[in-house]
Amino acid sequence: GQQVMQIPQYQHVQEGEDFTTYCNSSTTLSNIQWYKQRPGGHPVFLIQLVKSGEVKKQKRLTFQFGEAKKNSSLHITATQTTDVGTYFCAEPLMDSSYKLIFGSGTRLLVRP
Amino acid sequence: NAGVMQNPRHLVRRRGQEARLRCSPMKGHSHVYWYRQLPEEGLKFMVYLQKENIIDESGMPKERFSAEFPKEGPSILRIQQVVRGDSAAYFCASTGQQETQYFGPGTRLLVL
C-alpha cells in the first residue's frame, strides 16, 4: 500500500545550527502538507505544497516539493529553542481527497 | 473564531470501563476526523465523519470502538471495555471545503 517514509527519526542540534527533515512517498502526490507538534501539544498545520518543484518560505523555514512530486523537505535555518517539536509530513491517500497518511515524524531537539 | 475543541483533555479509566471522547469542530466545518497517536509515534487515521454519516471507518478497530457525529452536538468517539493498549492520545481534526486539517488539543487516555 501507499507509504510515506520520513527521516531522520530524531535530530539533536545546537542552537543556531540548521535542520532538515525529508519525506519520500511511494507514489506521485497531488500535494503534501507539513505539521508541527510541540511536546505535549497537538499537530499544527504549517503549509501545503502543490506544484512540482515548489519552494515556499516561512521566516526561517523552507519547504520544498520535489520535481517528481514524490518527495519533500523542510529546512530550518539557524534553529532556535522554540523550534523544538516533532515535524510531520502528510500526504493524501491515492483516490481519496480527504484521508491523510502521516509520516512517522522527525523529532527535533535543540541544545541552548 | 474558536478552534477545534476536545474534551476531556485527560481521561483515566480502569480496564473494562467505557471512554467517551468529544470533539467540536471549528465553526463552519462539517468534516471530522479522529486519529490515534501512541507515544513517540505518528498519527494513525481512525475514522472520518460528516454530520450523521460515517464516511470511512477503515482505521477503526472492529470491536469496542465506535464513532458518531450527530446532527446536533459534538462528534463522539466511544471505546467500550477499555484495555491498557487503548492508552494513547486521541486527536480530532476538522476541515471545511479545503483539505487542510485543523487539530484539536487531543484527549490523553490512560487505562489503568
What do you see in this structure?
The complex is a heterodimer of chains A (112) and B (112). Chain A has 112 residues and is mostly beta strands. Chain A is built from no helices and 11 strands. In chain A, strands 2, 4, 5, 9, 10 and 11 form a 6-stranded mixed sheet that branches. A 5-stranded antiparallel sheet of chain A has the order 1-3-8-7-6, with no helix packed on it. The model of chain A has no long low-confidence stretch (mean pLDDT 93). By secondary structure, chain B is mostly beta strands. Chain B is 0% helix and 50% strand. Chain B has no helices and 11 strands. Chain B has strands at residues 5-7, 10-13, 19-24, 31-37, 43-50, 53-56, 65-68, 75-79, 88-95, 102-103, 107-111. In chain B, the strands form 2 sheets. In chain B, strands 2, 4, 5, 6, 9, 10 and 11 form a 7-stranded mixed sheet that branches. In chain B, a hairpin with a 6-residue loop joins strand 7 (65-68) and strand 8. The A-B interface holds A 31, 33, 35, 41-45, 48, 88, 92, 96-105, 107 and B 31, 33, 35, 40-45, 48, 55-56, 91, 93, 95, 99-106.
Quick synopsis:
The complex is a heterodimer of chains A (112) and B (112). Chain A has 112 residues and is an all-beta fold.
Largest interface pair? A-B, 22 and 23 residues
- Please tell me the overall pLDDT of chain A: 93
Most strands sheet of chain B: 7 strands, mixed
User: Helix/strand-derived class of chain A?
Assistant: mainly beta
Shape field of chain B: globular
Following the backbone from N to C, one meets helices and strands of chain B in this order, namely EEEEEEEEEEE
Structural class of chain B: mainly beta
First CA to last CA of chain A: what distance? 41 Å
Instruction: Please compute the radius of gyration of chain B using only Cα atoms.
Output: 13 Å
Oligomer: heterodimer
DSSP, total strands of chain B: 11
Number of helices of chain B: 0
